[in-house]
Amino acid sequence: MYQITGDEAYGHKAIKMAKNFIESLMIDRKNASSTGRTGMFAVWSTALCYDWCYDLLTEEDKEHLAYYMLLQSSYSEPGYPAIQYGVNYGKDTISHSEVNGHILEFQLLCGQFAASVAMYDEYPDVYNVAAGRILQYAVPAVNIFNRSATFTEGSAYGIYRYYFEVVNNYMFKAMGHENVYDDEGLSLFDLIKESKEYLKTDSRKL
To answer: What is the pTM of this model?
Structure first.
């Protein structure tokens, strides 16, 4: 509402709510695949407040919100810095990969990336690591599959991850980049269309 009306009261209320929200969040560090993934939505919401109410934040507010965003990010699967849970981490490199693992979901592509953009002026290293991992590992892998008109997750589960790729792509575009993902992942819709045509031809193929 602050961005819409310009009423600073809304902005200060949002900052107060963001502080309470991000501080109160409780994540089971031993179950990052569940609570850690959900918790990154709190980081996302706090990042929006940090960005949209930036001109109302005191230096203490910035430090406070940044601390808790990074603290909660450390409990997620990518961790903070975002170097865990991927091709170079751990033994299970299949389920933990940037090709079809949780890295291609909200935790890194939206939650921590949004936080890194919001606090870039104060903590550019957060952005450099998060964006670096996305651009070095996730984007090239996704684009290979997009160019081949295939999608790693199929037509059902795939729509979930496709959404996060689109959001991540638009955040990059908002900063002046061209599409970092080829056709923004539209190969998923080609796959869905082909699947429907396939099922029409012979219902027994279900």
So the answer is: 0.81
